[in-house]
Amino acid sequence: MRRLRLCLAALSTAALTLLAASPASAQLGGGFGWNPQTGGYGAPVGPQPYPGPTSVPNSSGGQSSDLEIGTLYGASAAYGVGVGIWFDAEVGVKDPALAFIAPAVLGVGGPVGVYFLDQPHMRRGVPGAISAGLSLGAMEGANIWLFQFTRASSADAWGGRGLARSMVLGATVGGAGGAVLGFLQEPSPKLSLFVGSGGAWGSLIGSM
Fold it and tell me: What is the mean pLDDT of residues 150-171?
């Protein structure tokens, strides 16, 4: 029974190959049949029509990949949690049970917003640019806070609330800038990843 299936599969493959080759042979002006010019079997002699140039699809466009949009989902979740922590710091929530409400709600709201923003699918390069902008803005905000915290006196230091403000403000500005750049220029996701990685290493080395 198994060999019968293999045989049928081989016959089907051969039939499909013949069917696919027949139109191509007809378009090229015939195949290997009786040729009256040579008095035998073979391809006809003389100029033969050539197929026209085929168009190559542009691989730079298209919709974003699952990995790229997944990166934006993760970045939006982190941004939502950060905004929730900043909200708790501004309001002055002291109860640990209540302090988890805003980060949890906004941490879920970020990916939900990305889901609706991705309907229909965003173009390739847009999610990567937004993710890079969010991460770069948050790191730059943290660096500004660190510079102020180490240079100012203990009375003028921003403290934890200032850190939350700097990171949320920087991430918001960076994400908005990345969105504008992504929609206008559609940069390569690899370029956005390289820029984000370079910014992370630069911030880490500069903070030492």
Answer: 88
